Amino acid sequence: MANILDGKKAAKEVKAELRTEIEKLEEDGIVPGLAAVLVGENPASKIYVSSKAKQCKKIGIHSEVIYKPDDITHDDLIRLVVDLNKRDDIHGILVQEPLPPQINKLDLNLQINPFKDVDGFHPENLGRILIGDPLFLTCTPYGILELLERNDISLNKKDIVILGRSNIVGKPLAAMIMQKWPNTNGTVTVCHTGTQDVVKHTKHADVVICAIGIAEYLKDYMIKDDAIVVDVGINRVDDSSVEKGYRLVGDVAYEGCEKKCSWITPVPGGVGPMTIAMLLYNTVKACKLINKVED
Known about the structure:
The protein is α/β, with parallel strands linked by helices. It contains ten helices and eleven strands. α6 (139-149) packs across α7 and α6 (139-149) crosses α10 (271-290). The mean pLDDT is 96.
């Protein structure tokens, strides 16, 4: 049976450390501030943004959730971001996805001040990750690396397969793992829809990180004995046997893989809590950078 990479426990540790930092900032009259913009009525986005706001409040970060209708114009959303850039009490800005089709995501990300880009989606920040000189690390990949590090797992000299090449997870994570940083410096293979034989790659990997968006895609026969498996996915699967009528599963077939691998993340409770924890970390970091507070 695999050891569990407990994201809830690690996230709790990160937030406790942040709380200490925030208390020090408060002594100098500085309060970190995060603004989350939610466009439309997506239920999952509402829950996610609400969770972020609650976590902020718990550790002392000022949080604002700004709701806008899904018919907001691109120009109006840009103006909102520009106004947030100018506010001294807001150090982090995130615009929750998905966004309606009239919004150009690239143009929107370009308008966010890179020093307030706590999601790590601005092309400048993504470029800085690629060259190994990051301002902010993208939250979900950062959360994965932090979770591994807090369990004394180094990726140095390991073969890592990432399933999925999204701008949010796969691409920035690959760029991070190949850096000569402590606990990274691994050899990365990224599999996607153009990969002819996924199993050929996953079967020989020391670490498999699954962010492919397909429920229970990674099966036990696809991994080697004692592999480390990180599940980034969260999918809603109909299940009439439970009261809610559905259950949440990851991109990994957990029951089979758990018996074969050495470490595995649960869903929920694995990568998800770490994503939010690293968003809070980036917000505090942004506050310190903007206010020129040295560690």
